[in-house]
Amino acid sequence: MSGATLERRLANYRAAVRPPAGPSAAERTRSATLASLMAEAVDGEIVDSDLGAVVRCEPLTVVLPLDRHRLSHIPGQPPPDVPLVCLDTETTGLATAAGTMAFLVGLGWWEADRFRQAQLLLPDQPNEPALLALLEAHIPKTAWLVTYNGRGFDWPLLVARYRMSRRDPPIHAGHLDLLPFVRRVFKHRMTDARLRTVETELLGVARHEDVDGWEIPGRYLDFLRSGLAEPLLAVVRHNREDVRSLARLLAHVEGQFADEDSRRLAHRGDLAGLSRAYSRERRLDEALGCLETAIGASSVRFGPDPDDDLWWTPLRPVDYGGKRQPSSPAAIPRQDSPWTEERIFVERARLLRRLGRYAAAAEAWEALAAGIGPIAVVAWIEVAKLREHRLGDLAGAFAAAGRARDLADRRRRMGRIDPPLDRALAIRLQRLMRRLDAATSRTVRVS
User: Fold this and answer.
1) Predicted confidence band of residue 384 (pLDDT cuts 50, 70, 90)
2) Considering the domain boundaries, does residue 46 fall inside one?
């Protein structure tokens, strides 16, 4: 097929699928009526254009200081010199497929210390191109979007609606989704990670006469059928508070974690989660600083734990070292837990090793090996690995592996059997014995 023929066929195809210029006269009349009813009910203004009418609400601004320079030091946060636009949508369903559309888009941004908001409402479905055009005008190209689960729902849905309207989605410089940060830092002390739970359990904000999320699509569809707009007022309030909570959450994070003095008052589990966030960005010194702050100046000694099985939860397989042995998943003990003090010390020992501070890492694991629980066995194995591979102390490594074996034997007599651990320790002790014998033989020959 020649290039000219292909171009002609593409031109014919574009002409066949070209969208209509705009709503018909009947649709404009219906949309104008619905826009008037909606604007009166929610105390908004009608923004009319060639693409149709949109209702715009602008809630009262609130004083909400946010130090962007302090915020930028926290992992995952945007640079201090870019504008932030908080965004939340209310939709006709919970899917991102073609049948779901956003009928309300809430926006919020800072002007000095004041947080300003705007809400764009769709009075009728044929007016969606007008809503999308007005939304694009509210998002600067240099801005970062701030959402809550926006990467998984809100923004993909809006992108799909732009594509279906044959428009490019708004250009923006970055996207900060706060849900992963909340899960990483705060999930240890929250019942779930919903935004409403964040408000009540983290920010201390209580909503009154709020509408449940499952009711929102039905209220909008009822409005399209009957023109009854008063139930939408609660939806607008709900969206306004969602956007405002994004700003409150950013301010909370900045106030609690931006510097060492602020972190001293933070929950130790929050600091451990923040350390993980720093580690993901390979900012290991700052990650270690968070753990040091969480531990404080107290000198902790670990003894037997009467309920040490709580320490083993199915998240991370224990690394015994050496060649991995095949085993059923149910037989492999796991190494992770809520952020207990002991767990924070484990995290600190791992970070010291990643930083190359091997002697300090060995000391940290030795402190954890003071008890008789499963953590003590694993700690002695870690000491043995550090002494053998990093500190060049074969005799010390053999002694540490022997301590681990003694503790494992004691636990076996108590009925707590761990076959993978037993195999790994036997292999380690045999290898260390061979290396010690070889080193002794070389010493004798030299002398």
Assistant:
1) very high
2) yes
Look at the block and give the residue holding tokens 């809520």.
Answer: 338
Whether residue 163 is contained in a domain is answered as yes
Would residue 122 count as lying in a domain?
yes
Query: For the chain, how many structural domains are there in total?
Result: 1
Cβ proximity of 371 and 304 under 8 Å: yes
**What CA–CA distance (Å, rounded) separates 274 from 269?**
9
pTM, full prediction: 0.83
Among the listed residues 270, 246, 253, the one whose alpha carbon sits nearest the alpha carbon of residue 74: 253
Phi, psi dihedrals of residue 29, rounded to the nearest 5°: -65, -45
| pLDDT 10s digits, 312-361 | 343 455 565 655 555 444 444 444 457 888 889 999 999 999 999 999 99
Domain extent at residue 160: 24-258
Contact 232, 186 (CB under 8 A): no
Please indicate, yes or no, if residue 97 is contained in any of the structural domains.
Answer: yes
Looking up tokens 């010493």 gives 443
The enclosing domain of 214 has a CATH number of: 3.30.420.10
